[in-house]
Amino acid sequence: MMTRGYVFNFFVLALCTLMAISRANQDPTQTTTALLIRVDQSGMGDYKKIQDAINAVPSNNSELVFIWVKPGIYEEQIVVPVDKPFITLSGTNTNGTIITWNDSGDIFQSPTFTVLASDFVGRFLTIQNTFGAGNKAVALRVSGDRAAFYNCRILSHQDTLLDDTGRHYYKNCYIEGDTDFICGDAASLFEYVLLWAIQMFWTWGHYIKKGPMVTQPHNSRSSTFLDYGLDWWQKLD
Ligand SMILES: *[C@@H]1O[C@H](CO)[C@@H](O)[C@H](O)[C@H]1NC(C)=O
Ligand SMILES: *[C@@H]1O[C@H](CO)[C@@H](O)[C@H](O)[C@H]1NC(C)=O
Ligand SMILES: *[C@@H]1O[C@H](CO)[C@@H](O)[C@H](O)[C@H]1NC(C)=O
After folding, report:
1. Which domain holds residue 134?
2. How many structural domains are present in the chain?
3. Which of 11, 22, 139, 157 could make an SS bond with 133 (beta carbons 3.0 to 4.6 A apart)?
4. Which residues form the signal peptide (predicted)?
5. Per-residue pLDDT of the chain (237 residues; tens, 9 = 90+)
6. What is the whole-number distance in angstroms between the Cα of residue 83 and the centre of ligand 1?
7. Ligand 3 in reach of 130 Cβ (< 6 A)
């Protein structure tokens, strides 16, 4: 599991050190560069919406694509389709780039953000479902293999993170919710991830108290939780 963390770190580093070229200058024969797409609500980037940037990635993509999202509140329900692997979506700071939606009910239809593609990386993002308590309201569903999230805040009440299928890595993240707020069948490593119960709830035969969780959520039994707690949280950004 640690090896995988290293590989993902290397992947992000490689993205940053590769020469990033704008779409206008893209040479389709050049395969050693990462494609950079900028999303900016003020109109100064390539797109104003995150989904439009994802849609611009070609089907069966095999290049590294770095989508840089300027600060703003993006009211969008986003899907990274299965045929668009190798996308990194990065905000600038975690609290500044907020992706928000309000939906509930079907866990596959309601997520604010859905990752179906493999080799996805999310960085410095707040992803929230503002539906509130009382029904399933997924903020983030991750179903692609080899997905990683760094410095992200994932917020809702019930079923906040649908850690659906595949192998995933979460580092320096904050995840809050109540009933079953991490669920799914993925095999994931959570490292320096603060799990915060926003109200007391009943699950798997016992009550979870409001506040930081000090036990592994029972419906994430195939995953590993390391070093979760409060002490590192101030350094999130
Ligand atoms: C992408 O790959 C799939 C599976 O190999 C294929 O069916 C599809 O036609 C491809 N799409 C494009 C646009 O090349
Ligand atoms: C981000 O927002 C959270 C919640 O409001 C807050 O606890 C945290 O200190 C903020 N981080 C920064 C760097 O402002
Ligand atoms: C979310 O939607 C529900 C149902 O449509 C509504 O009752 C609620 O006020 C909405 N919440 C926010 C924060 O918009």
Report:
1. 2-23+34-235
2. 1
3. 157
4. 1-24
5. 333 333 334 343 333 333 333 343 444 444 456 799 999 999 999 999 999 999 999 999 999 999 999 999 999 999 999 999 999 999 999 999 999 999 999 999 999 999 999 999 999 999 999 999 999 999 999 999 999 999 999 999 999 999 999 999 999 999 999 988 898 989 999 988 888 889 887 776 677 788 887 666 655 667 787 766 555 554 444
6. 8
7. yes
**Residue 88 identity:** T
Question: How far is the centre of ligand 1, averaged over its atoms, from the C-alpha of 61 (Å)?
Answer: 10
Domain assignment present for 143: yes
Contacts of residue 103, defined as CB under 8 A and 6 or more positions apart, other chains included, come to 77, 109, 110, 111, 112, 129, 131, 137
Please identify which of the residues 159, 163, 164, 178 carries the catalytic annotation: 159
Any domain includes 28: no
Selection from 25, 23, 80, 26 nearest residue 50 by Cα: 80
- Is residue 228 situated within a structural domain? yes
In the reported structure, the alpha carbon of residue 58 is separated from the centroid of ligand 1 by a whole-number distance in angstroms of 10
193: CATH: 2.160.20.10
Ligand 1: lining residues by beta carbon, under 6 Å: 59-60, 83
* Torsion angle, alpha carbons of 202, 208, 180, 8, to 10: -170
29 belongs to a structural domain: no
Q: Which ligand has an atom closest to residue 61 CA?
A: 1
